[in-house]
Amino acid sequence: MAAIDDLPPLREVISAHGLSARKALGQNFLLDLNLTAKIARQASDLAGSDVFEIGPGPGGLTRGLLAEGARHVLAIEKDARCLPALAEISARYPGRLTVIEGDALQIDPLAHLTPPIRVAANLPYNVGTELLVRWLTPSVWPPFWESLTLMFQREVAQRIVAEPGSKAYGRLALLAQWRSDARIVMDLPPQAFTPPPKVSSAVVHLTALPEPRFPADAQVLQRITAAAFNQRRKMLRASLKGLAPDIEDRLKAVGIAPTDRAEQIPLEQFCALARELA
Ligand code: SAM
């Protein structure tokens, strides 16, 4: 397959800069540039967007994003050892790559990027879910991003796209699906990474909805789903008892049987209950 750019292969970059993978930083690198270009293409309309990349590491996905035409990439990396390798990519794509050394949990991407903004990342697993929840719960909606194209452990990816009635269905599915269209776009075996992690991975693509899918107050919905899924085996009349003294009547008013359990209830009904209890 043709090379995506004229920079050195990632194995050479890693050995030239001494980037032995550190477990504490969640470092499992993608070294196949055709694969990273393929992941980058899932982000769609790169040429018309700025891209916020978390944890570029030696720059595999960064190179994919740039080769696929991203207008401008802001990459934030915690590991200072990676900065010289990333500087070489900046030099190859003048004016299109800004690298910041720091923690993704601390940065405001709007200070550096111009909308429309897409987020793309092979996330460190330890911060992945925290960042996703944060991106899905900003103080105002729509959020700063048009889409998120993110690598997760496959089990987490399944929780994001889960349907009612499945074991994976819970708060993450409800939150993601209330505010975005979410789908799994790629599956990756452990061997796609160096070093290979213990589990399989998947890329999830989430497109922000202009407005949440069904009307509901975010905090009320959050309280209901927290109570319902913290005791997911219990009937809703028991798990939601603390939310209203007449919870059985309220459930019936929105067409939910008080004996139902949380994992049977679709998003639309949770939103109806949130409006009923607001
Ligand atoms: N994107 C590269 C790739 O696909 O090969 C590296 C992916 S590796 C799974 C995760 C990267 O995130 C590492 O380079 C790690 O140093 C970086 N990282 C870990 N925690 C971070 C944080 N809080 N903020 C920014 N980067 C972080």
User: Low-confidence segments, ≥5 residues, pLDDT <50?
Assistant: none
Bulk shape = elongated
Strand percentage lies at 15-25%
Number of helices: 11
- Give the ligands present: S-adenosylmethionine
Order of the strands making up the biggest sheet: 4-3-2-5-6-9-7
**Which architecture of the largest domain would the CATH scheme give at its second level?**
3-Layer(aba) Sandwich
Order of helices and strands: HEHEHEHEEHEHHEEEHHHH
Task: Report on this structure.
This protein is of the alpha/beta class and 278 residues long. It has two domains: 10-208, Rossmann fold, CATH 3.40.50; 218-277, rRNA adenine dimethylase, C-terminal domain (Helicase, Ruva Protein, domain 3, Orthogonal Bundle), CATH 1.10.8.100. The chain is built from eleven helices and nine strands. The chain has helices at 10-16, 33-42, 60-67, 83-92, 125-136, 154-161, 171-179, 218-230, 236-239, 247-253, 267-277, and strands at residues 29-30, 50-54, 72-77, 97-101, 117-122, 145-153, 180-188, 193-194, 201-208. The strands form two sheets. It has a seven-stranded mixed β-sheet with strand order 4-3-2-5-6-9-7, sandwiched between helices. A two-stranded antiparallel sheet has the order 1-8. S-adenosylmethionine is lined by residues 25-30, 54-57, 60-61, 76-79, 82, 103-105, 122, 124, 127.
SSE blueprint and pairings:
Blueprint: H1 10-16, E1 29-30, H2 33-42, E2 50-54, H3 60-67, E3 72-77, H4 83-92, E4 97-101, E5 117-122, H5 125-136, E6 145-153, H6 154-161, H7 171-179, E7 180-188, E8 193-194, E9 201-208, H8 218-230, H9 236-239, H10 247-253, H11 267-277
Parallel strand pairs: 2-3, 2-5, 3-4, 5-6
Antiparallel strand pairs: 1-8, 6-9, 7-9
Helix pairs in contact: 2-3, 8-11
The structure holds S-adenosylmethionine.
